[in-house]
Write a structure and sequence with these properties.
Helix content of chain A: 10-25%
Distance between the termini of chain A: 63 Å
Strand content of chain B: over 45%
Radius of gyration of chain A: 25 Å
Structural class of chain B: mainly beta
Largest interface: A-B, 42 and 57 residues
Number of strands of chain B: 10
Strand content of chain A: over 45%
Low-confidence stretches of chain A: 125-134, 141-145
Largest sheet of chain B: 8 strands, antiparallel, barrel
Number of domains of chain B: 1
Mean pLDDT of chain B: 82
Structural class of chain A: alpha+beta
Oligomer: heterodimer
Number of helices of chain B: 3
Order of helices and strands of chain A: HHHHEEEEEEEEEEEEEEE
Number of strands of chain A: 15
Shape of chain B: elongated
Mean pLDDT of chain A: 83
Radius of gyration of chain B: 22 Å
Order of helices and strands of chain B: HEHHEEEEEEEEE
CATH topology of chain B: Porin
């Protein structure tokens, strides 16, 4: 009898000790990282990087489309189009896995010209190569996988200056006012080209949440070039040619609102060596 | 309804056969018992995201890079609580060695919600599970005051959880399974019991009281 009571007591203790353990709470999604990430990856994409890449790709396509048929046949595409190049029609080309560029039949640098760039958004990937001490935005060839494209329409305002008129991704379409997002060509050495972006915008969501963004001062300057990166492989590293876009000067500011109250901010200051983030959340 | 009555009549005939082997019959035909047990691992996993069925492994649902303001400023979840499994059973003693149990279990869960900016409490997510679990219980030790047993059961569980932070009511129906390797009851007409078990109802142990008649 005593033995059974001992067994009962042990089982009772096991039962009592193993019940109703609670789960630890979650960390808030609002954090230094999420504010910074949203500012640069979401707002920065729409108001800085996509406009410049659209202009870069359209300028590349413009060089090719302006050639005669004979010149096109003899054109070495490996330099400007390492991903390859396919014709859509007489006024449009496709860069496999990266983008399709649709001209209006004229030259891209003609005032009034309106071109469309449909890009694979996952080919435009932000990498922060801290070991190089720089911070740049790369466009990769991602093969033939189909993604929802991001579509950017660009209009030439004057020689060397363009404005983004609209942008759409999946079901989300945005129209921009004249000069709301402008991209100006500063210089082009052949090996690299430099641009200044001046932009301002806003993102609205449910529950009174919205974010406002914009460049400050003279805008943000970005440098585009074609470079190489090594992709480590199992047996040997693969060298890939990549399009590199590096912001090197200027400030991009994002403020976050809940209703009329500003709750957070992220101010990004770009320099030649790095990007500095002033975020309201520690 | 008629099928159910036929089933009960059939079971009663089977129960009356307990004299056939000539062994002394178990003195009580029926039992009712209530118990409380835990840890309800699967309930924790189904209702409070991030727990694991086989352990108390906490995973933090932190920002995963999904770029919306709604995600960043969503209320965040505090500590999750479970009531443990509260069960009620009706048992039929067909043989000294065999009992058929028909059990119902209830388990509650809740988590407070906090504002992402101010940290103040804004409400809570809450829900429950109910399960219906018939079990076959094998009584391998039958003394005057003590019985020891093992059991196995298969049934159904329904759960409902109000996720206010996502404006979502999660309703789920899934199989219930429970295995009791060892249990003990001590007492005659009124008894206490304790058992260890593993399954969808709980992983750990259960204690309670019962009444035989």
């Amino acid at each position: 009898m005593k033995r059974f009571c001992n067994i009962f007591a042990v089982l009772a203790v096991v039962a009592a000790a193993s019940s109703c353990l609670a789960k630890k709470g979650n960390s808030p999604f609002r954090s230094n990282y999420s504010i910074m990430d949203y500012s640069e990856s979401e707002m920065g994409s729409i108001y800085l990087f996509e406009p410049v890449m659209a202009v870069v790709l359209a300028r590349d396509a413009d060089v090719y489309l302006a050639l005669t048929d004979e010149e096109k046949e003899n054109y070495d595409t490996s330099e400007r189009f390492p991903e390859g190049l396919r014709h859509i029609d007489a006024n449009s080309i496709n860069i496999p896995g990266l983008a399709s560029i649709y001209s209006d039949g004229g030259r891209f640098d003609t005032p009034g010209a309106e071109w469309t760039v449909r890009a694979n958004p996952y080919a435009l990937t932000m990498w922060n190569y801290s070991y190089r001490g720089s911070h740049y935005y790369e466009a990769y060839h991602y093969g033939s996988t189909t993604y929802y494209p991001v579509k950017v329409q660009v209009k030439c305002v004057s020689a060397g200056k363009w404005t983004v008129t609209s942008r759409s991704f999946d079901d989300d379409a945005m129209a921009f006012a004249e000069d709301q997002i402008t991209v100006s060509l500063d210089s082009d050495t052949g090996e690299s080209s430099s641009y200044t972006v001046v932009s301002a915008g806003r993102a609205d969501e449910d529950d009174g949440l919205h974010a406002e963004c914009g460049t400050s001062g003279d805008g943000v300057r970005l440098r585009y070039s074609m470079g190489t990166v090594e992709s480590p492989g199992e047996e040997s590293a693969a060298v890939m040619r990549v399009r590199m876009l590096k912001p090197y000067s200027g400030k991009f500011c994002v403020t976050f609102y809940r209703g009329n109250e500003q709750v957070d901010h992220c101010y990004i200051t770009y320099t030649e060596d790095s990007a500095e983030y002033d975020v309201s959340v520690d | 309804m008629s099928a159910f009555l036929l089933l009960c009549a059939g079971l009663d005939v089977f129960a009356g056969d307990r004299f056939s082997k000539g062994k002394e019959p178990y003195p009580f035909d029926y039992e009712v018992r209530i118990g409380w047990g835990g840890y309800p691992s699967l309930d924790g996993d189904m209702l409070l995201d991030g727990t694991s069925f086989f352990g108390i492994v906490d995973t933090d649902m932190s920002y995963d890079g999904y770029y919306t303001l709604s995600n960043i400023y969503r209320d965040y979840r505090g500590r999750g609580y479970l009531t443990g499994i509260i069960s009620a059973e009706f048992d039929l003693n067909f043989r000294r060695w065999f009992t058929l149990t028909i059990g119902a279990g209830f388990s509650g869960a809740w988590q407070p919600l906090y504002d992402a900016v101010t940290g103040k409490k804004t409400g809570r997510n809450s829900g429950f599970t109910v399960s219906l679990l018939p079990e076959a219980r094998f009584n391998w030790l039958n003394r005057d005051l003590v019985r020891m047993y093992s059991a196995i059961g298969l049934g159904l569980t329904f759960s409902a959880y109000d996720e206010r932070d996502y404006n979502n009511m999660e309703l789920t129906l899934y199989p219930a399974f429970q295995f009791t390797p060892v249990g003990i009851s001590v007492g005659r007409k009124v008894y206490g019991f304790a058992e260890v078990g593993m399954g969808t109802q709980f992983l750990g142990g259960m204690v309670g009281m019962g009444f035989r008649f």
